[in-house]
Design goal:
The chain is an alpha/beta fold. The chain contains 13 helices and 13 strands. Helix content is about 35%, strand content about 15%. The structure holds zinc ion.
Length: about 350
């Protein structure tokens, strides 16, 4: 048997977009993130949404207590406020100055899980956005139109053209992240504006809508924005592996109970935190660009946000055989099952902290 094991060391990765939920789900999923990622930007769409510094500090404490005994020593949840009418600018600025609040997240109302409290017009938040720009607080955006007359696969482009571009052009000092890019429209606004970065998920990198729909509908691949065409996926993979520092890793890991994923009306979200790094490593391996993995998962996001790159390292190993059988489901303490994305890649890859 030939030994074609591959090993590489990279700076500890960051997850710039993750949903950790609350209560028993929080306790069950947070260790997967805390074990491998240094920073985790924790989304605020819990119930009720996180709209104040006080709520962010309390949620951060719950995340840290859920991180578990095997969490990285430098695991740092970075808290985000949910941008809506309840946000008080002075509270946001004070929270950021105190290091409690990392950024603010905009959800179009109704676009995805727990987004009912979101907005209908991003520019209506202009005073908040200008204050954020002045204080160096980034805006994170779920860029998806909720216009019911629009085809679901065209909604990212529509939101970017009508709502995000005006903000980017009228408030150029504001640092912006287009989250979970799913189309070339998302890639293009990032490429065209140095202050705009883009997070990319493991599933938008490796799946297209034929995977979702062609061979029996697969509800576990349903997320928002919906996984798009093969052409869009190829463009996203090209951007992520290009070395362009404006693109970085955000898992958008979003756990739902099995009962919500296998239902008449399926909840949007994919739980990928356990194998997210393995999925991306396998893609970079297949495309022959493992030398660019560290930039994408460990450096570019830190640079975009003006955060120090991780001095700590992890070692990734790709096995020649695929004999191990990683679990494809996780259970919360009360027995709720959650399916895990990416087991195929986890058969190949393992990682360990080296510093
Ligand atoms: Zn998300």
């Amino acid at each position: 048997m030939t030994d074609d094991t591959v090993t590489l060391e990279i700076a500890a990765p960051d997850d710039w977009h993750v949903h950790l939920r609350d209560d028993e789900m929080l306790s069950a999923v947070t260790p997967y993130t805390a074990n491998v990622f240094r920073h985790a930007v924790v989304m605020p769409n819990i119930t009720p949404p996180v709209t104040s510094t006080q709520a962010a500090a309390a949620y951060r404490a719950r995340v840290l207590s859920a991180a578990g005994p095997d969490a990285r020593h430098d695991f740092t949840p970075m808290m985000v406020l949910y941008l809506n009418e309840q946000i008080v600018v002075d509270d946001l600025l004070a929270g950021a100055a105190d290091g409690v609040v990392f950024g603010a997240k905009y959800y179009p109302a109704g676009a995805t899980t727990n987004s009912a409290a979101g907005g209908n017009d991003l520019l209506a938040f202009r005073p908040v956005l200008e204050a954020m720009a002045g204080a160096g607080i980034p805006l994170l955006v779920h860029a998806e139109s909720t216009d019911p007359s629009l085809d679901i696969f065209d909604r990212e482009a529509d939101f970017i053209e009508k709502q995000l571009l005006p903000v980017v052009e009228q408030i150029p000092e504001l640092r912006v992240t287009v989250e979970h890019i799913s189309t070339r429209a998302g890639l293009d606004i990032v490429k065209d504006h140095p202050q705009v970065g883009g997070s990319i998920t493991p599933h938008h990198l490796t799946c297209d809508r034929s995977d979702l729909l062609a061979n029996g509908m697969r509800p576990h691949l349903y997320c928002k924005p919906v996984i798009n065409s093969r052409e869009e996926r190829m463009a996203i993979a090209e951007a992520a592996t290009s070395g362009n520092p404006s693109f970085f890793f955000g898992t958008d890991s979003a756990p739902h109970p099995l009962s919500k994923k296998e239902a008449e009306k399926v909840a949007a979200g994919i739980f990928n935190a356990p194998y997210a790094l393995e999925v991306v490593a396998e893609l970079f391996f297949e495309l022959g660009c493992l030398d660019r993995l560290e930039g994408f998962v460990s450096h570019h996001g830190a640079d975009h946000y003006g955060v120090e790159r991780s001095p700590a390292k992890i070692r990734l190993t790709r096995r020649a055989d695929t004999e191990i059988d990683p679990p494809e489901a996780m259970f919360t303490a009360d027995g709720t099952e959650v399916r895990i994305f990416g087991a195929d890649a986890a058969r190949r890859w393992a990682w360990e902290a080296v510093s």
